[in-house]
Specification:
320 residues; alpha/beta; 4-stranded parallel β-sheet; globular
Length: 320
Amino acid sequence: MRARFFGEEASTRKVRDDLVANVQGYEHHNIDIRDVCAVTELFKQHRGTIGAVVHTASQPSHDWAARDPQTDFTVNANGTLNLLEATRQFCPEAPFVFLSTNKVYGDTPNWLPLRELPKRWEIEPGHEYEEGISESMSIDHTKHSLFGASKAAADLVVQEYGRYFGMPTVSLRGGCLAGPAHAGAELHGFLSYLMICTVTGHPYRVFGYKGKQVRDNIHSFDLVEAIAEFIRAPRAGEVYNIGGSRYSNCSMLEAIDLCEEISGRKLKWQYEDENRIGDHIWWISDVRKFQSHYPKWQFRYGLREILDEIHAAVSRAPKS
């Protein structure tokens, strides 16, 4: 549905076709996770052979959610419930990994004591979240955006299936996910879309916070490795913040500078003073809880390596 959400250029169809063509044993089923009968039947067919369930399907944009709240909620919340219930019926011992989001915390991070630096906002030294925001932050009494609310509903029900039914479930509350195969669009895929615009000359818009808003960025390889670690040693009803942490983060202005440096091109961009509703001024994930439970997991990709790979992929892509 990414093409429906963000336009044909954001479709993941090519990645799917490459998997079907090149990965032995890969089997694609073109079903909608909102279709409870189709989901149930697929799990029933594979009863006894499902080793893990990795749920990354979503409507992922808080801007888009406001346009069609029912589609957003039914994909993110009801679809997650359908997958959980099918897992409980046919493979309750299989680790269930849900890719949640830092947007479940709403705009609470915006009330942290932040300092304005020349090119970024930064938290006050010595604050408990100086190393990054931990899972101790409340998800209540905050403006989530409708997307954040639908993902929070899914996040909670994933936890509940773990705690109530004793199933091995985890909600991974991600920061910005990036990588060379990311089909970035204006409403989703920050680093990918920024590099696409820099290379192609397409104009880019920066929304609010003087362009100094900070995000941490995790490479898809590092995220998949984290998922694999959980599957090897699952726990019931767990929650982890997972992102680039202090290892890999940048402000919008810093990202623009780096994209221009790597590509050798100037980005055409304009600034709009109004920020996106519920958007974070400063987000860096504290991944120490995950690392304490899974000490073998370490970052492989920093911000520069991520953008180098994205640039190489964008430069190879056929020009439309």
